[in-house]
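Severity: low
Component: inverse-folding endpoint
Summary: output formatting inconsistent between runs
Steps to reproduce: submit the following structure tokens with default settings.
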């Protein structure tokens, strides 16, 4: 009866593998060789000193008979040492500008102070907490613009007393918080 030798599993010969320490040693030697080549390229060998009495290598006599004239080094082209003192600008001390002072609100009505508008609710919560540390109660209003962007507005108020509104505005300005005045439509 004939046999089918096509699908017969052939035993594979086990090839001996190279131990890991041989690869480590080969890599280390290759790295040292490359480092040595780089060292030689960076540090060229010193020229040999001439031997006295040998006319082929002795250059002392040539130097004595034919002096080489070395041109003076070129003048530096840096002019900023001369230009900078002439271009000195005196910066005046910062002074209080009249635009920095708050104009008190005198028109009666109901007002809010918006102290921030943020894309994330976490940032709005941080600003609300900052207002709480200043002793102010703030609310967060979430608004969607054009059905795409969501903004979280942090507002302090409402204020009907104009004296209280102006006092809170100057307190916020002293703390470095910019506030926008929003009047509620009646």
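Observed output (run 2 of 3):
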């Amino acid at each position: 009866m004939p046999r089918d030798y096509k699908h017969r599993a052939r035993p594979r010969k086990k090839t001996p593998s190279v131990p890991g320490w041989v690869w480590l040693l080969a890599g280390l030697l290759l790295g040292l060789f490359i480092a040595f080549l780089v060292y030689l390229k960076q540090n060229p060998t010193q020229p040999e000193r001439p031997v006295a009495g040998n006319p082929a290598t002795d250059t002392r006599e040539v130097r004595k008979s034919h002096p080489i004239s070395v041109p003076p080094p070129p003048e530096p082209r840096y002019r900023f040492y001369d230009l900078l003192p002439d271009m000195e600008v005196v910066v005046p001390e910062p002074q209080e500008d009249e635009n920095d002072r708050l104009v008190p609100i005198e028109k009666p009505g109901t007002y809010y102070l918006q102290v921030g508008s943020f894309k994330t609710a976490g940032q709005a919560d941080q600003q609300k907490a900052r207002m709480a540390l200043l002793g102010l109660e703030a609310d967060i209003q979430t608004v969607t613009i054009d059905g795409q962007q969501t903004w979280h507005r942090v507002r302090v108020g409402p204020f009907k007393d104009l004296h209280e509104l102006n006092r809170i505005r100057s307190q916020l300005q002293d703390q470095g918080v910019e506030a926008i005045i929003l009047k509620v439509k009646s």
